Fold this protein.
Amino acid sequence: MSHHLPICGSKEEPLHAIGARFDTPDQLLAAVNRLRAEGYSAYECYTPYPVHGLAEVMRLPKSLLSFLVLGGGLTAILIALSMELVPSTLIYPLVVDGKPLNLSALPQYVPIVVALTLMIGAIAAVKGMIILGGMPRLNNPMFAWDLFAKDASRGFFLAVEADDKKFTTAGVTELLDQLGAGDVTAIHLEEESK
Amino acid sequence: MSNEQTSLPAPETFDYKHVGGRFVGLCLTAVVTLIITLVLGLGDPKQFAFSWLFAGSFFFTLLIGSLFWVVVHHAVDSAWSVGIRRQLENISCLLPLLALLLVPLFFVAPLVWTWMAADPVHDHELAEKSAYLNVNFFWLRTVFYFLLFGIVAALLRRNSIAQDKDGAAIHTIRNRRVAFFIIPVGAIALTFWSFDWIMGLNIRWYSTIFGIYLFAGSALAALCLIILLANALRSAGYLGRVLTAQHNFAFGKLLLAFTLFWSWIAFVQYMLIWYANIPEETAYYVLRSTGSWKVLGIVLVVGHFLIPFTLLIFRAPKASAGFLGMVAGWILAMHLLDLYTMILPVLHPEGFDPAVLDIAAVIAIGSTLGALFLKKLGDSPLWPSRDPRLAEAANYND
């Protein structure tokens, strides 16, 4: 069935996905819509830039990232305030320049609070993005596909993964052909180097 | 994108049937409040001078803020804001009328800017500053500010309207050049305007960040005004094709950003003065944090920063025009309070003392400007109908 499909990766290894390339983001959006309508759920899109509406079409859930950043920011506020207030008002009350120790002295603590909130919030955002994105990851089976690995900005790529419940090579190939996809390729896993 | 519409939205022109009697009402309000202000002002010229300065400064910041958004639109070649640009142009072109309304200040100037009445011979500090702070140079600068901003606003609007007729891209390029010119010049001019008109209420006090503080408030307040105006026009059935829920997101994000910007600048000014604790600098905040003025200061911190910040930080409500309009109205009121606490404590150092004149002056200037704005509204299409980026603006996706 899949004899006419170009194959990359190692033929002896299991099939990972069927990859396809589209020329325009609109085609990709249409393809994802169709895949969803047909009941596929395990697919991934690879685009050279963020495509408006793609996340909505793929029904991606809201990212956890904003909660991570909020948590990081609130932690930072607590750390900064306790590190400033506990030593300089409780352990060793520090009176400089006749400044009071009560609430009206709050302004002097704000710059540290803001700076630490920004820093930990930013770290939470970057590290959260890396971890939620599944990185660090040394290899992706998609890299077996030369066209994709050499220049992923050449088009809008779609990979229908083989572990999808509805997946049949013939069915997916036919569907992708109907959708006007180019370079439909069967991507097998690569041999592990020993 | 997939739902892109290639046809340009057909130009809309404002139909006065939506205004009905409101235009006449506005004119009547203007006349009545102007008379009230005049009568009360003759009885208490000092209160009149401060109230008029307060109201005039409030509307000046709104108009300058609108001009800022037009300028920044051209300077960065922005697409999303094409739909609201004509209204921003209309607002900023009210500057000549505002200048005219502020003429009475010329006659009561020594009552607000008391240094004008002081004699440099007996006032060493004034003598030291007299190369800059003298009556002739002050009025020369004032005329310069209004001429500069007025001419730039008129130029930007004229090119924009010329483009409605011939659709030539050269008008966009000309406006970009004007924008590049006015950004540095206007920043300096606005800074000195704030020094002259508001910091000059007490010539012994100075804060180098004051111009930025005022600018932050102006840009934020003008953004609020345009959100309210966009909501009003949309509920009258206009702008639907060029302002969508996606534009609401853009408004919401800018509102949050400028709320933070204002808060940070306000805090920086306060913190540095509070921390350095130099008497001539702290005088400004000592006055505004004693007695009942302290309450207004706290209201400002809570109302101008904490409340809008908390409301605007969530993503989903920002798509709603109603929600944005509510927040915008609130921030606009807070901007009014901000200017009130800049100017009026100089007149009433003993504590918060609201006067009928304060309210009457705001209504008088506001309704006069509003009436002229309504008159201008129908003169031209509601958005730049042949702007090169109009299609992009209509299909803007946040």
Notes: The interface with chain A takes residues 1-2, 267, 270-271, 274-275, 277, 315, 397 of chain B (CB under 8 Å). Chain B is about 70% helix and 0% strand. Residues 16-387 of chain B form one domain.
